[in-house]
Each structure stands twice: as C-alpha cells, then as structure tokens.
Amino acid sequence: MNETGIIWTEKTWNPMSGCEKITEGCKFCYALTLAESKRGTPAFPNGFDLTIREHKLREPFRLQDPTLIFANSMSDLFWDKVPDTYRHRIVDVIEQTPQHEYQVLTKRPEALLKFSRERKLPPNFWAGVTVESGRLLERLDILRQVDAEVRYVSAEPLLSSFGDPDLSGIHWVITGGESGSHLYDAAVCERRGLVMYDRSLKKWVLRDDRVQWVRDIRDACIAQGVKFFHKQWGGNYPEASGRILDGRTWNEIPRLPGQRREINNGYLRQLEAKAKPTNTRDGLLFDSVQ
Ligand code: SF4
To answer: What is the pLDDT of residues 174-202, one digit of tens each?
Structure first.
C-alpha cells in the first residue's frame, strides 16, 4: 500500500502491475515509463510486463482506518492478460474489506461490463472508465450499463472537447491535463496540452480554448447533478499550472470511507499554498509551482 500524489485518492494498492497501450491517452503512460525505467530491479523485475504481486494482495486488511484506495494504479484490472482467477481474488479482497472504498479505473469498459454481469460488484467497488477524448464518449454508454454503486469517468489527459456530454447514470467526473516533460516539445504540447509553455514568461499558461473543454464538462456535471473534480491543468509535472478553474478549486467526490476525513487534505492544502496566482484574469494564469 503506497502513499500517492494523486489527489483524488488516499492510497494506491498494486497487487499486480503491467499493461499494454490501447488508446491515445496511453501514449505517455506514466506507469509504463516508471516500470520500464526500473526493469530488472526488485521493484519491477519484468518492467511493464504482467507481474502478479501476490504478497500485496492482503495489504488492505492491514490498514487501520477506512481508506479511499486507488486499486491498480500501475495496471488495468480488465486487461485481457490478467488471469481471471487473479482478477476475482482482487475483487474478493475488495468485498471482504467493506470499510474501504476502492477506485478501479479501466480503459477497457467492455471487459468491465462483462465481468460485472458475471459477478455482482461489491458496493465499495467504484467502476471507473477513462474517457480522454470526445471521440471515445461511447465508453460512457458501456459504463452506464455496469451495475455499480459508483460509476465514474476520468477525463485525463483530456485531449479534446466532449461537447455537451450526456452524463446520465454517471456519479463522478475527474478532469485533468496532460503532464510530463514531453510537453516541452512544442508539437506534442500543441496536440495534447491544456497548457503551453511561454518561453518569455518562463511559465506554463492555460490555453483559453481548451480551458473551455473543462468548463463545459464542469457545467454538464452541475446541470446533471454529477460530482466534479478538477485535478490539474498539467505542464511538465501535474501541478505545474495549478488547478484553479474560474477562481476556485473543484474537489467534489461521491463519498468518503467512514465519511469522516477530507480527501488527501494535507496534500491539497500544500498544493494550493504553492500555486499562487500572479494574474487574476479569471484566476487562470499561474506561476509554476516551485
Ligand atoms: S491502459 Fe492505463 S496503464 Fe494501461 S497502458 Fe494505458 S494508460 Fe497505461
């Protein structure tokens, strides 16, 4: 069980690792980059090839407090190479630790739907699907059919407009911009960034037209009663441009384990203290975080 900088969760749990790229959102997969950079080490002996970490399977039983857990941050539970028996063992642990809430996220919604029809998902299993582009909105139609108490969408890295999306049956949407040093490549940044690097100002600035993509999603969430969380604008690292949209942060979450702690609150406070606006124009332009 690991601490994490991912601000919409509290801990990550990786009883396995490894995956294969499937859509455009995967192009700069952080998990692949990390795992392959450590290939051959005790942490990632097989790089990003499938690695079952059975010794981690029972970690949630040892957590003292009810916790919000991002399950499989270094893989995709519904990758077809994951043995079905092991997938079931992971869901067994989720079922047997109802004090925790588990955020499961996949880019393979068809496999998630198939699994959910074969086995009723436990109430603390949040069924999440990444939708990184307006071209992939059909994933929402699949997610809507999954029988889960919480169905959610991660629109990160957000690569194109959703237009005016139908969010019926969805409980939570997270938005976020691409991040990583690859964004210093102007062509890549042009294709994928919600931000651009202003070399004269030496800082990342938001692209107004792409800010509108996030604003449209937020407005759809508000209109349709869906919780909304804006994680980051992105840049060379996730918080490089802060996370303020229209003068404030957006931190809604469907529910918390035990309903008694604020999500990763210490981290959020630390983050916001660092991201000081230097230009109050819509609160949208920020110094890079030191
Ligand atoms: S599905 Fe997720 S974990 Fe798998 S390659 Fe794509 S971004 Fe990486």
So the answer is: 999 999 999 999 999 999 999 999 999 99
Q: What share of the chain is helix, strand, coil (3-state, %, to 5)?
A: 35, 20, 45
How deeply is 239 buried, as exposed, middle or buried, from its count of CB atoms within 10 A (0-12, 13-18, 19+)?
Answer: buried
Q: How close is the Cα of 29 to the center of ligand 1, in Å?
A: 6
Q: Is the minimum distance from the CB of 289 to ligand 1 under 6 angstroms?
A: no
Q: Which of 191, 126, 193 is nearest to 156 (CA)?
A: 193
Q: Taking the CB of residue 207, how many other CB atoms lie within 10 A of it?
A: 17
Domain count, the chain: 1
Q: Supply the range of the domain harboring residue 50.
A: 2-286
Say which residues have a Cβ less than 8 Å from residue 271's Cβ, sequence separation at least 6: 7, 239, 243, 289
CATH of the domain at 23: 3.80.30
The amino acid sitting at 196 is: M
Which residue, judged by its Cα, is nearest atom 3 of ligand 1?
75
Across 50-57, average pLDDT: 96
Q: Please report the pLDDT score of residue 154 as a whole number.
A: 98
Entry pTM: 0.88
Ligand 1 atom 6 nearest Cα: 26
**Sorting pLDDT into bands at 50, 70 and 90, what band is 11?**
very high
